[in-house]
Amino acid sequence: MAVARATIRDVARVAGVSDGTVSNTLNRPHLVNAETRDRVMRAMAEVGYVPNAAARALRNGRSRTIGLVVLDFGNPFFADVATGAEQAATEAGADLALFDTGLGRHDREDRLLRHLAERRLDGLIITPNDVDHPRFATIEERGTPIVVLGREVPSRRRSSVRSDDTLGGELAARHLLDSGHRHLAFVGWRHDERYQGAGHVTTAGGAHLTWIGVDSDGIGDGLAAGARLTALPAAERPTAVFCANDLIATGVIQAVTRDGLRVPEDLAVVGFDDTDLASAACAVELTSVHQAAAEIGQAAVRLVLEEMSAAGRTPRDVVFEPELVVRESSATRVRQR
């Protein structure tokens, strides 16, 4: 029986709950058990109650908005993640707010998290420096679920969505070993699971892996690494390099070809992410470990939406399996020297 201009009080009376429970069902559904939520929703339909989303947003500072915080939207991988996330959010009738932390700058990340805690988003997806950042607890205490993107969370303290980076490193290294390379280099961060995976394979195969560190993850870092490689005597230089992402790999290729080396004849190069850079924008078509970037973004949004709608869900770790895409930059077998 519909009620003219039904109110929250009318819904509460029909559902047999308090006004506050109806309000929580609308604004903080994770605080209400499933049976009660269903009863409230049926009562809303019975009395013809239509919630005013705009009014709710003004009252509580929320508007069904999910924040997506990544390291750098200048990296095509994160742009592809955002495309998938936006698609999933739109399908669910939610808004997506995009932020980056300037290549993971700790000061910028901390300021941004403080701002987002005050803004009180409905959900947060983030690629953090620390999966247990001190501000996460404050955000979650205010009813905002957090899904970690691209990182494994120990002991499943919160949900995560990621690619299996260790496997990706193994795929890259195994491909290079199978092509005859015995001295490899990795350009990236020593703590990176991609480096750990490559190290496992090279050690097992009796080969050598040299680590070349970077300050961030851009083309400039690849240019610097490439210059270091070409400065080495030929007898000491690795014959293949595995890079932490396609941006770094692109820089390496630019640097070594500028200095007279041939890719892949003198130096085979493998990237990670399989962005458009790999197949279309790189001087030599780049072999790369493919990540399902858009699907990762979609999965992250769907997971945070689940946690927004149901309290007490057990955190989940959603893992995508990478694949190696072989192209020109590593296609030639090495000549032993």
TrEMBL record:
Keyword Cytoplasm carried by entry: no
SUPFAM superfamilies named among the record's database cross-references: lambda repressor-like DNA-binding domains (SSF47413), Periplasmic binding protein-like I (SSF53822)
Coiled coil: none
Record GO terms (molecular function): DNA-binding transcription factor activity; transcription cis-regulatory region binding
Pfam families found in the cross-reference section: LacI (PF00356), Peripla_BP_3 (PF13377)
Span of domain HTH lacI-type: 6-60
Entry keyword annotation includes Transmembrane: no
Keywords: DNA-binding, Transcription, Transcription regulation
Protein name (Swiss-Prot/TrEMBL): LacI family transcriptional regulator
Species of the source: Actinoplanes cyaneus
Upper taxonomic lineage: Bacteria, Bacillati, Actinomycetota, Actinomycetes, Micromonosporales
